[in-house]
Amino acid sequence: MLDDVDLSRDEVTTLMDVAPRCTFVLTSAERRLWSGGRAVSMRGLPVEDALELVEQELGRPLTAEEEPAARDLCTALEGEPLRILQAAAEVREEGGSLAEAARQARTPAEAPATQIVLSLSEAEKRILTLLAAMNGVPLSVEHLVAVTGIADAASILESLRGRGLVQTHSPTYSLSGTLAQDLQQLWDVTPLQERLPAPAGPTAEETALRDRCLTLVPQTLGQIEALAVNEALAQVMDAVGQINRYLERAAPWRRARAGQSERVATILYTAVEALRLTSILLQPVLPGQMAELWRRLGWQAPASLPDGLSWGLLQPGAQVVAGPPLFPRERRPRTKDEGPKTEELEFQSLVRHL
């Protein structure tokens, strides 16, 4: 059973081919399967069932005066359970009327959930904006606190969950329904999409990469003092290759699609911090490019660069700036005698990839 599927048609087909003896039940806002199965269009709740849902969310029976407005509300929302819950929760939390909620639901300019969002506090909006920036990838409370700086994010999330705006995946949170898409149209979430995430607990792979970078520092400095510059650069570039291989094995893009937000955050932070350390060692031979890299990583280099050769100096939540490749490669035409092309993440493409 896969709920709220956000896979492409080809991805759904591939998934079903992997387990041909299994029976899949997929739910999605749009049709994802056009062959090899049966698609059923789900309609909204009947009005009487929808009214029971309103009463359940209000925590009390409807009065005779409220029932006509409640019927109008459920009809305007086409019986969609989530939208009904969100509207009823707003009435309960704000002390509004069902008649006003029905009027807003009939207004075509904005979705009811969007109307609710506009009335929230600035702290609540900041948390929703960050969740919208994640495109459905759930976040833990710790990550939300680290990026937004809101200490009581946990209580705010529970309040938003009570309004039907946020859903919990224990212990992570994401936006309900199509609210992420609605908010991306309402607000500019790009700045939050380009912030360095807070790492969770490291695995053996992260520990090994960190130890490799920290061991690299005295080795490289010693070789430079001995004027063995070529050997020093070769060691640094070997470490950069290890960062690339780590990213390829960890595959954060696949983990993000699977909703493993804490693991993704740890992978990205580890790779970027390892890149920062190796870039300091490359600074004497590439000063301009490394200064630009640090700007993109949101890191202010200390007056004495050796003071920056410790692990963990990049701050979670720092603004990460995208840009063109620092080292663009010149591509030559391929000949028919050459074998199949293999994609290798090198130092310059790693910068672009991150």
Salient structural properties:
about 350 residues, mainly alpha, Arc Repressor Mutant, subunit A, Isoleucyl-tRNA Synthetase, Domain 1, 17 helices, 3 strands
Describe the model:
The chain is an all-alpha fold and 354 residues long. It has 3 domains: 63 residues; 73 residues, Winged helix-like DNA-binding domain superfamily/Winged helix DNA-binding domain (Arc Repressor Mutant, subunit A); 137 residues, Isoleucyl-tRNA Synthetase, Domain 1 (Orthogonal Bundle), CATH 1.10.730. Helices cover 55% and strands 3% of the residues. It is built from 17 helices and 3 strands. Strands 1-3-2 form a 3-stranded antiparallel β-sheet. A hairpin with a 3-residue loop joins strand 2 and strand 3. Helix 2 packs across helix 3 and helix 3 runs parallel beside helix 5. The radius of gyration is 26 Å and the shape is elongated. The two termini are 33 Å apart. The C terminus is likely disordered.
Q: What is the CATH topology of the largest domain?
A: Isoleucyl-tRNA Synthetase, Domain 1
One letter per element, helices H and strands E, the order comes to HHHHHHHEHHEEHHHHHHHH
Cα distance spanning the termini: 33 Å
What ranges have pLDDT less than 50 throughout 5 or more consecutive residues?
Answer: 338-354
CATH class of the largest domain: Mainly Alpha
Radius of gyration: 26 Å
- Count of distinct structural domains: 3
The percent of residues in helical segments reads 40-55%
Q: What fraction of the residues are assigned to beta strands by DSSP?
A: under 5%
What spatial order of strands do you see in the largest sheet?
A: 1-3-2
CATH superfamily of the largest domain: Isoleucyl-tRNA Synthetase, Domain 1
